[in-house]
Design goal:
alpha+beta, 4 strands, Alpha-Beta Plaits, 24% strand
Length: 109
């Protein structure tokens, strides 16, 4: 009989303790004052994502940084679209994916 392994998820790696290779890092921002705070919104958001995705997060009241690894290698575009779709759900009014912005600091010279 195979040995049973205890799996844990610490928010920084895969369920079996290996370090995850994050496919995408997305920032969500609260755009309405009456929207749920970040601590509540992140629970709702992660609950709407596929069960085989591993997520790491950092949360503030008005901002959520979410790192995602999809077990099937869904790819960056699919990950961003699924997150954007989840944020359009009626349980998360007032939250939006923040545009990535320019790739580096902007020179004002």
């Amino acid at each position: 009989m195979p040995e049973k392994r205890e799996e844990q998820h610490d928010g920084h790696g895969t369920h079996d303790g290996r370090e995850a290779e994050w496919e995408e890092e997305v920032t969500a921002v609260r755009v309405r004052a009456d929207a749920a705070p970040g601590e509540t919104a992140v629970i709702r958001l992660i609950g709407m994502l596929p069960a085989d995705w591993v997520c790491g997060q950092r949360v503030e009241e008005d901002r959520i940084w979410l790192r995602v690894h999809s077990a099937g290698g869904a790819g960056t575009d699919v990950v961003r679209e699924r997150l954007a779709a989840a944020l359009r759900d009626s349980s998360l009014p007032g939250w939006r994916v923040q545009d990535p912005g320019p790739p580096g600091p902007v020179s004002r010279a």
